[in-house]
């Protein structure tokens, strides 16, 4: 028999704040976290905007000696993890850790490569490898909090955090673990990463209007906004959480995962993989489409994703597609790549507990190919019981998680 899996803690750091309270408050206000890049000179770059974590000083979170050994993505993961553990008041050392990331320690990779070019082998730090490798965020989290359970990293591009959450849910629901700290972390606003995405024409070129550049589902959308941050959730077996009288903030009831096997970056033209993942999650949750009150769309602000995600939702939801509230909070946060699904999972939990649907901002010119209710520009109150989060990644990855308002 499948065990119930509940959420007892969450934490985040993003372009909309250093915790989830700031994230949620700004999402409801429709505030954008996109601005001009401040971490390096963009004079010779075609793209000059991104979703940086504002006012981030590592010395406010870590001792200087410790900070020197940590890449930016690991710092973000550690900050979100500590918040989630404190929020859950979880004390046991038995918990596992699963952290998703798209690229890992890109800051370290680029910095150390420059040292190699200038100084040769002797210039490369002995901490290079353990700062850069994608699994190190999970390793550092386990070391800091003495967590001895399973520990691995997920890398499925923009689906990474959603898969980390989904896999944690599966492992707990099947009895392999009692508690897992899971989510995603990304710190890849670097010259090399920006150049790569820019040269493949994936990013918005709207440098003149940073806050208006991410416009999911709008007819004039022209690409996504590179962003950074982390989100973490504490998942537990319901019976174990109940035993310790934990404060339960939500429940996970379904997970679906497929692959398009179609193209390295473009979604399947028939949206078969995405629609199958959504259907799989609904079947796992044992619910009907009419029961879903809110969908946090992948909604990247690229032509193909937004059009084909709309197609997938219409294919699965049928007549119910017009009735469900949808939004893309990437219009405000930008695209956190491997951490996006965790930030959006936290958003889904907040919609359930606060009864508010966050908006898709910058929605001005409707696209006939995107004709669903995307909650344009302003949040509104709506009492819902079930929310869904979609994540789709390069390589054809499709991942969907379904959340339910907790009731004993």
Write the layout of secondary structure elements.
Layout: E1 5-13, H1 20-29, E2 35-36, E3 49-50, H2 64-67, H3 72-88, E4 96-100, H4 106-119, H5 128-132, H6 136-145, E5 151-154, H7 160-173, E6 179-186, H8 191-199, E7 229-237, H9 238-243, E8 250-259, H10 272-285, E9 294-296, H11 303-317, E10 325-327, H12 330-333, H13 340-354, E11 356-357, E12 380-381, E13 386-393, E14 397-404
Parallel strand pairs: 4-5, 4-6, 9-10, 9-13
Antiparallel strand pairs: 1-7, 1-8, 2-3, 6-7, 8-14, 11-12, 13-14
Describe this entry's structure for a reader.
This protein is an alpha/beta fold. It has a single domain, classed as Thiolase/Chalcone synthase (Peroxisomal Thiolase, Chain A, domain 1, 3-Layer(aba) Sandwich), CATH 3.40.47.10. Helix content is 34%, strand content 18%. The chain contains 13 helices and 14 strands. The protein has helices at residues 20-29, 64-67, 72-88, 106-119, 128-132, 136-145, 160-173, 191-199, 238-243, 272-285, 303-317, 330-333, 340-354, and strands spanning 5-13, 35-36, 49-50, 96-100, 151-154, 179-186, 229-237, 250-259, 294-296, 325-327, 356-357, 380-381, 386-393, 397-404. The strands form three sheets. A ten-stranded mixed beta sheet has the order 5-4-6-7-1-8-14-13-9-10, with helices on both faces. α3 packs across α6 (136-145) and α7 crosses α13 (340-354). The longest helix has 17 residues, at 72-88. It is globular. It starts with a strand and ends with a strand.
């Amino acid at each position: 028999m499948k065990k119930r899996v509940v959420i007892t803690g969450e934490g985040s750091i993003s372009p909309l704040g250093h915790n989830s309270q700031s994230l949620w408050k700004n999402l409801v206000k429709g505030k954008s976290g996109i601005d001009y890049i401040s971490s390096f000179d963009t004079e010779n770059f075609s793209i000059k905007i991104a979703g940086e974590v504002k006012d981030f000083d590592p010395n406010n979170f870590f001792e200087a000696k410790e900070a020197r050994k940590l890449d930016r993505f690991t710092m973000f993961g550690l900050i979100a993890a500590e918040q989630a553990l404190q929020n859950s008041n979880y004390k046991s050392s038995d918990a596992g850790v699963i952290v998703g990331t798209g690229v890992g320690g890109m800051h370290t990779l680029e910095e150390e490569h420059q040292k190699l070019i200038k100084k040769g082998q002797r210039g490369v730090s002995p901490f290079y490898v353990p700062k850069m490798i994608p699994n190190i965020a999970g390793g550092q989290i386990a070391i800091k909090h003495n967590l001895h359970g399973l520990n691995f990293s997920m890398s499925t591009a923009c689906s990474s955090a959603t898969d980390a959450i989904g896999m944690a849910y599966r492992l707990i629901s099947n009895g392999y673990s009692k508690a897992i700290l899971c989510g995603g972390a990304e710190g890849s606003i670097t010259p090399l990463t920006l150049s790569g995405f820019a040269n493949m024409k994936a990013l918005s070129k709207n440098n003149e209007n940073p806050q208006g550049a991410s416009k999911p589902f709008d007819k004039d959308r022209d690409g996504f906004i590179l962003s950074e941050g982390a989100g973490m959730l504490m998942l537990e077996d319901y019976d174990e959480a109940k035993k310790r009288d934990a404060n339960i903030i939500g429940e996970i009831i379904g997970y679906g995962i497929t692959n398009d096997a179609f193209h390295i970056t473009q979604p399947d033209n028939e949206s078969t993989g995405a629609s199958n993942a959504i259907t799989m999650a609904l079947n796992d949750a044992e619910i009907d489409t009419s029961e879903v009150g809110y969908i946090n769309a992948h909604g990247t602000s690229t032509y193909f994703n937004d059009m084909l995600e709309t197609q997938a939702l219409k294919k699965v939801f049928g007549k119910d597609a017009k009735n469900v509230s949808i939004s893309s909070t990437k219009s405000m946060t930008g695209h956190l790549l491997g951490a996006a699904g965790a930030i959006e999972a936290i958003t889904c939990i907040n919609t359930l507990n606060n009864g508010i649907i966050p908006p898709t901002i910058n929605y001005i010119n409707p696209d006939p190919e995107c004709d669903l209710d995307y909650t344009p520009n302003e949040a509104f109150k709506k009492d819902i019981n079930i929310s869904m989060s979609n994540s789709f990644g390069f390589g054809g990855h499709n991942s969907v998680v379904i959340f339910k308002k907790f009731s004993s």
